Amino acid sequence: FLEGIILFLILLYYKNKNFLKYPGFISGLFLIFYSIFRITSEFFREPDLQIGYIFHYVSMGSLLSFIMFCSGIIMYIKIK
């Protein structure tokens, strides 16, 4: 639900507000919002059995989503 419908509606809103004139802006927003939603959903699911938790409550999915969040922020800053 978060990574599908809500994310689609957020990106559609920014597309309709004419943010397409900035190349890469929508892609940066996608990375930022997708990683936030993914980190949120990682708190409610079990980690992979072969990996488990890396830190206390940080799974591999949360860690990779944080890296994705940082790359989205970098894209957003470079576009602005």
Task: Characterise the protein shown here.
By secondary structure, this protein is an all-alpha fold. 66% of the residues lie in helices and 0% in strands. The protein has 3 helices and no strands. It has helices at residues 2-16, 25-42, 60-79. The longest helix has 20 residues, at 60-79. The chain is elongated and about 45 Å long. The termini are far apart.
Give the topology, please.
Elements: H1 2-16, H2 25-42, H3 60-79
Helix pairs in contact: 1-2, 2-3
Q: How would you describe the shape? A: elongated
Average pLDDT rating? 79
**Major sheet description:** none
Give the strand tally.
Answer: 0
Which percent range fits the helix content? 55-70%
Order of SSEs, N→C?
HHH
Euclidean distance between termini CA atoms = 30 Å
What's the short version?
The chain is mainly alpha-helical and 80 residues long.
Question: What attributes does this structure have?
Answer:
mainly alpha, elongated, 3 helices, 0% strand, 80 residues
